[in-house]
Structure formats: C-alpha cells, structure tokens
Amino acid sequence: MSTDLNVFLLREQMPSTEDWASAVAAAGYGVQLPVDFDAYEHTGYLPCKWRGLDTGFEYYSSNLTPDSANDPEIEPEQLKMFAAPS
C-alpha cells in the first residue's frame, strides 16, 4: 500500500533539509531523513530510514504553473494560496 502526500509552500519559506529532518524526528514518526540532498533539485527516489530499516520515497520539487490547475491531485483551494495578488 502506498500513500501520496503533497506539500505546498512558498519557496522562500521552504525549510532546510536539516530543519525538515529535525521536525520529522521530533514528531515521532520514526523516520530519519537525509540532510545532504538538495531540496530544490533532487528528483526521484530519496532513501531514508524508518525505525532503523532502509526505505525511501519519491521526492519531487517543482513550481506551480497555470497547468497546475489541471492536476487532479491539487485542490483549487491549494492553488489559491499561491496565486499572485491581483
């Protein structure tokens, strides 16, 4: 079984990989994220540990575009948060 999780945030508010790893560990998920990957450029499988076991997940970082409105995984309310002020 797999789960999709999308995180939407402004690039200038994107935490460092070290901050992400610390927050995930502090939340008690048992996941050890690597801190040596480029959160903006990395694409594809990202290895990590879960409760000491080797595992990983698919990781992608991209900008929202006008075509993002057609993405079924992105809710219209999420797009509104990132719309340019008119």
List the helices and strands and how they pair.
Elements lengths: L16 H10 L4 E2 L11 E7 L2 E7 L16 H5 L6
Antiparallel strand pairs: 1-2, 2-3
Could you explain how this protein is built, in words?
This protein has one domain (12-80). It is 17% helix and 19% strand. With 86 residues, the chain is α+β, with helices and mostly antiparallel strands. The model has no long low-confidence stretch (mean pLDDT 83).
Structural class comes to alpha+beta
Report the C-alpha radius of gyration, rounded: 15 Å
| Overall morphology | globular
Classify the helix fraction into a percent range.
Answer: 10-25%
Order of helices and strands: HEEEH
Let me know the largest β-sheet: 3 strands, antiparallel
User: Care to count the β-strands?
Assistant: 3
> How many structural domains does the protein architecture include?
1
Mean pLDDT: 83
Sheet with most strands: strand arrangement = 1-2-3
Helical stretch count? 2
For the terminal residues, how far apart are their CA atoms? 42 Å
Residue windows where pLDDT falls under 50 for at least 5 positions:
none
Please indicate the percent range of residues in DSSP E strands (runs of 2 or more): 15-25%
